Inverse folding.
């Protein structure tokens, strides 16, 4: 039944419908030093104007109307997760209606995901419009059942072959997760909107309740790999980030695309992330979880030492029970490293980040004592540091910057006394200011040999 509607819609498919140019209004940045997120979302145009514009996209030709009519008059009560891998419905929390600059509110759901992950259509659909806007970045608008319009923003790139007028089946490629437009420099994510038949935005979160089965995900991926411009690179990216998913598929006797099989053989498996005392958990964890996996997570959070909540967890110890103290420490860690939403849920997004940022003795600097009044012991920074790395030496870097007057953040994570292990945009900006003041060129925020030497000076 899943592909029955697709077959009916494809019978209507004719020549692609021409795209129409669009101008997107620009809004000012919304900056939050406490979360290291500094991107802005959406359009500053009046909501009535935007509604009319969205309605107009659906009313352009009789041919397009026939395709849209074939979608049906009933909207899908449950909408599938549009990010194909790495994100489940438990990994998101509502952010529709959150305040934005200029008195606006957030009109969609931000879904944090690995850059380059395929995005699929959650329902049968017709592509209304594709393009690039100053705020939206690379975007795709689709007509969906029940007169609704779905919008996908900030794509790394639009899916190959996705053009205006194209009929999509459920699971068809839309594009790839990115951070283009006014999300540039921020974390990769999909900004996903749903508008009703009058063009008014609706909260996607309550309806994002469905997930494709593993068999369906692999089937959709097989189709995507036939149309992507570089299936080898895409396969390697997916295996690097979601190896466990493909191993599970093999265990379930699901046939994998050949390029995925090749990538499993050629891409080295990442070592299991460890904290002080063991391998970190591979499964999802939340309130009332218990056992050895929780102990491993608690030890990691204690070693990460992101703030007061981690200190409370250290006082309680790694008990093996995931209660409110552990959840608070996980929220604190997610805020410190820029994982959004910081929900305190240990799922694929947090797992992927921790896997890329293991903690260990090798990352601990020889000393973390800051110089007092130009004297004392200056900690050694022994490796190059740059955006997205983590470790105790990053905390040392932030302490040095704060002590020298190049404040990472005025309050919250990164501020004096609240330094973190994560090198994010705020740390990079402080490094750039330090480099410019010391005449280090290029002042690009990369902490190399010259910058390390300058930081060691009183």
């Amino acid at each position: 039944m899943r592909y029955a509607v697709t077959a009916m819609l494809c019978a209507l498919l004719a020549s692609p419908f021409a795209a129409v140019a669009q101008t997107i209004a620009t809004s000012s940045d919304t900056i939050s030093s406490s979360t290291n997120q500094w991107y802005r979302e959406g359009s500053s145009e009046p909501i009535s104007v935007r509604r009319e514009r969205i309605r107009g996209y659906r009313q352009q030709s009789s041919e397009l109307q026939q395709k849209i009519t074939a979608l049906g008059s009933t909207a899908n009560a449950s909408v599938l997760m549009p990010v194909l891998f790495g994100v489940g419905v438990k990994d998101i929390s509502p952010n529709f209606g959150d305040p934005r600059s200029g008195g606006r509110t957030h009109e969609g759901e931000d879904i944090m995901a690995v850059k380059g992950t395929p995005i699929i259509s959650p329902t049968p659909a017709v592509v209304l419009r594709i393009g690039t806007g100053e705020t939206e970045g690379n975007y795709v608008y689709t007509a969906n059942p029940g007169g609704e319009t779905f919008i996908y923003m900030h794509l790394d790139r639009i899916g190959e072959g996705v053009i205006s007028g194209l009929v999509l089946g459920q699971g068809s490629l839309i594009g790839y997760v990115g951070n283009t437009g006014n999300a540039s420099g921020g974390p990769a994510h999909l900004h996903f909107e749903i508008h009703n038949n009058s063009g008014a935005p609706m909260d996607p979160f309550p309806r994002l309740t469905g997930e494709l089965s593993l068999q369906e995900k692999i089937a959709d991926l097989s189709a995507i790999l036939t149309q992507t411009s570089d299936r080898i690179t895409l396969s390697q990216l997916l295996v690097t980030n979601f190896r466990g998913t493909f191993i599970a598929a093999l265990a379930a006797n699901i046939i994998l695309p050949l390029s995925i099989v090749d990538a499993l053989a050629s891409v080295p498996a990442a070592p299991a992330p460890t904290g002080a005392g063991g391998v970190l958990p591979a499964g999802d964890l939340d309130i009332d979880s218990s056992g050895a996996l929780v102990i491993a997570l608690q030890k990691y959070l204690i070693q990460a030492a992101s703030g007061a909540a981690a200190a409370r967890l250290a006082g309680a110890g790694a008990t093996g029970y995931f209660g409110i103290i552990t959840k608070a420490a996980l929220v604190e860690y997610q805020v410190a490293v820029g994982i959004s939403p910081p929900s305190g849920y240990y799922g694929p997004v947090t797992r992927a980040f921790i896997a890329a940022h293991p903690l260990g003795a090798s990352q601990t600097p020889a000393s973390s004592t800051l110089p007092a009044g130009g004297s004392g012991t200056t900690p050694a920074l022994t490796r190059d540091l740059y955006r997205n790395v983590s470790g105790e030496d990053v905390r040392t870097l932030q302490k040095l910057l704060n002590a020298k007057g190049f404040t990472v953040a005025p309050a919250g994570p990164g501020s004096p006394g609240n330094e973190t292990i994560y090198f994010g945009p705020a740390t990079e900006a402080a490094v750039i200011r330090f480099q410019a003041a010391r005449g280090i060129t290029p002042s690009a925020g990369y902490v190399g040999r010259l910058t390390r030497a300058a930081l060691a000076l009183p």
